[in-house]
UniProtKB/TrEMBL annotation, chains A, B:
<dbReference type="Pfam" id="PF12897">
    <property type="entry name" value="Asp_aminotransf"/>
</dbReference>
<keyword id="KW-0808">Transferase</keyword>
<dbReference type="InterPro" id="IPR015424">
    <property type="entry name" value="PyrdxlP-dep_Trfase"/>
</dbReference>
<dbReference type="InterPro" id="IPR015421">
    <property type="entry name" value="PyrdxlP-dep_Trfase_major"/>
</dbReference>
<dbReference type="InterPro" id="IPR024551">
    <property type="entry name" value="AspAT_Ic"/>
</dbReference>
<protein>
    <submittedName>
        <fullName>Aminotransferase</fullName>
    </submittedName>
</protein>
<dbReference type="InterPro" id="IPR015422">
    <property type="entry name" value="PyrdxlP-dep_Trfase_small"/>
</dbReference>
<dbReference type="GO" id="GO:0004069">
    <property type="term" value="F:L-aspartate:2-oxoglutarate aminotransferase activity"/>
</dbReference>
<keyword id="KW-0032">Aminotransferase</keyword>
Length: 431, 431
């Protein structure tokens, strides 16, 4: 098949008719599938069911330091949970605050505390005329939702294959004191699957922020979420931002986040924050008024289940075995059905939860709408951009993990048909 | 023994010497006991251990509406958890938001949201010159900690045996638009054990707040925490504030809170907020940016364990059997050792977690300090007052639940000795 742009009007019209028939047939199947979010599938959740039994028949539930985890107290998590979660990001246990089931909640609360009370004695952001965040795009819609909710001005920063465009980042951060933060998913970025290069991480660590309360919000959500089983030395990796910031004399510049949401249970995992000891102290001083402490029983349950970080990493191979075929099925179909048409490009991730798809300019909303009309709910077009506004109307996030292989195959076929049809319609409209 | 105030100087001096010797002997025992917080004891926590096994061997963990509780989603809790928690406060399930393990966290977040975003479109409190909260005293120190952290001005309201002095409450709430809230523990108040009378609840419901974003923070922490097993009709009760507010045309005036912290596990229970459907909608609209959802597995675990609210109420009788003897032991010792001396008064609670003790004016700090010197940590004197400032320096909160019966007996003996000694010293100093 030739690239669409080389087709004549007649060829396009014929194609449109053919695609419309295909679409109508697919629509008639009455599909009802929502793959709008990066949710693990049932088979993945089943993996962790033995964790439900790990505290069976116990009569004592003490942390290693003797704390009864059933009772009140321990603001920042039990020691063994700190150690486990520290292993996920290469931090020291003293740099950890281990909390409940949602790292998004921890991030939101970090922003909320900065708004209400400031960071380490700085002016509360809510008292400033203007607060800005840099937002590498495409990025994670819920990050942008948090900053939008707080009325923080969001500035798009283009993503490259090495991470955010650091020239742009440096220019803003080092010169504009109203820039207080940047959202980063440094490993298998959401949705692009980008792994920040060593150079990018070093440039982050060596920023010279105009605002002393500038913080990098380093959402290391997929730090051990590889799709392929390779020796660790051959896996994609990122530099340890906490260490790099320390080396660069910026120890307090980063808040890092991680969770077991996509390791055990999204609804009942353990989430944590890692940062300098000074940031940890500053955070705990405010956190102590918000809660007496997190669910320590669930922390203990996770530690008993995994034993240590190696146990957790080994476990992630089972997830990979489940989701890798789903990614590969989508990627193969895209390649086979769209590869030669030159009407789209997409990421080929080796980890994380998403495929980032770029249609022709101005087509994304129409494709998502057409899919929805036929029963397939995708993440809203534009969601990966601040204010839901993709200036190119081109990006679509594909989340292959939730559906069964069979559902996914129907969904991908439909998606391809919609992409083709919308593109043809656009080409015709432009003639 | 005669009342102390009738003793001569010589008698007091002799008594002081005797008490000092007693104190020294008790101090020499090297006690190390912290009863500063209202924590359940080990035996109570053991009660709930079978809950750890309730999801054993399950292969499917679905809520009654089919939601897989292991995955992401469900911002406000699963339906059966709403129903269970609604039963605790007599609310409708549609009035519930069921979240994680800490009702304090929910309360803090309610204040934080009001500060950041306002309530139902009102000006965010952080943008106002002055925000005030009424604080019935003595009250719960962590409530006052939250409002202090937000820089909210706290105004003491005296407690009566029917609840807060409603003349004072009405005067402030109905006339001062900067009064935005009041902290209430309506049933077995912390620390006084007061149960708000029907008249008090009705007067609350019929307030005519000068501020339309005034909210009653109704912390129903001990709603089913009776010490005595009586037919429900003979138990202390409070009117349903949600219903009363609705009847009075003030449906949105109250945020109510409850939790299973002192029913199952303080560290791993389920907490909830109950309010009008309009407040619930307003809260969820902001909450959706903070989290994807609470730990639904733990919610399901609680529901499966208790079945329904009757199961939970029945269960509370077992708690009562464990803690009632502790309360009674303390009360008997106080009565026997201090009853005739007329140097102190104390509450005789029939529910809740505390005994509120009033020493002679100006004695509380000294008594707590003397106990501490001998190894017994009590709640800090003044903690039950905003800014930790008890104007009379008289109130001490006794939390009898955590220690074993034996520890409690040693602790009470020491407390009595310290109270006597400090009072004698004061009487001598005033001569």
């Amino acid at each position: 098949m030739k690239p669409y742009r080389e087709l004549s009007k007649e060829e396009l019209l014929a194609l449109q008719e053919e695609l419309q028939a295909e679409y109508d047939a697919e629509k008639a199947k009455g599909l009802k599938l929502d793959i709008s979010r990066g949710k693990p599938g049932k088979e993945q959740l089943d993996l962790s069911m033995p964790m439900m039994d790990v505290l069976n028949g116990e009569t004592v539930l003490n942390a290693e330091n003797g704390t009864d985890v059933r009772n009140y107290g321990v603001l920042d998590g039990i020691p063994e949970a700190k150690e486990l979660m520290a292993g996920m990001v290469g931090a020291k246990p003293s740099q950890m605050i281990v909390l409940g089931n949602s790292s998004l909640n921890i991030m939101y609360d970090c922003v909320a505390r900065a708004e209400l009370f400031g960071i380490m004695g700085s002016t509360p952001w809510s008292q400033l005329d203007k607060v800005k965040f840099l937002c590498p795009v495409p990025g994670y819609d819920r990050h942008f939702g948090v900053t939008e909710q707080f009325g923080i001005e969001m500035i798009n920063v283009p993503m490259t294959e090495d991470g955010p465009d650091m020239d742009v980042v440096e220019d803003y951060v080092n010169n504009d004191p109203s820039v207080k933060g940047i959202w980063c998913v440094p490993m298998f970025s959401n949705p692009g699957g980008v792994v920040y290069s060593d150079e990018t991480v070093k440039r982050f660590a060596n920023l010279k922020p105009a605002a002393k309360d500038f913080r990098i919000f380093w959402d290391n959500a997929y730090g051990i979420h590889y799709l392929y089983d390779r020796p660790e030395s051959e896996q994609p990796h990122i530099l340890n931002i906490l260490e790099e910031c320390e080396k660069a004399g910026n120890p307090d510049m980063v808040y890092e986040f991680c969770s077991t949401s996509k390791i055990t249970f999204p609804g009942a995992g353990v989430a944590a924050m890692a940062s300098s000891e000074a940031n940890v102290a500053d955070t705990k001083a405010k956190l102590q008024w918000q809660t007496i402490g997190p669910d320590k029983i669930n922390q203990l349950r996770h530690v008993r289940y995994f034993k240590d970080i190696n146990g957790m990493k080994e476990y992630m191979k089972k997830h990979a075995e489940i989701i890798r075929p789903k990614f590969e099925a989508v990627l193969e179909t895209l390649e086979k059905k769209l590869g030669e048409l030159e009407i789209a490009s997409w990421s080929k991730p080796v980890g994380g939860y998403f495929i980032s798809f770029n249609a022709q300019k101005g087509c994304a909303k129409a494709i998502v709408a057409k899919c929805k009309e036929a029963g397939l709910v995708l993440t809203g077009a534009g969601a990966a951009y601040p204010y839901g506004n993709d200036p190119e109307d081109s990006n679509i996030r594909i989340a292959p993990t939730l559906p069964s292989t069979e559902e996914l195959s129907i969904a991908t076929a439909l998606f391809v048909t919609c992409t083709k049809l919308v593109t043809v319609e656009k080409l015709l409209a432009e003639m």
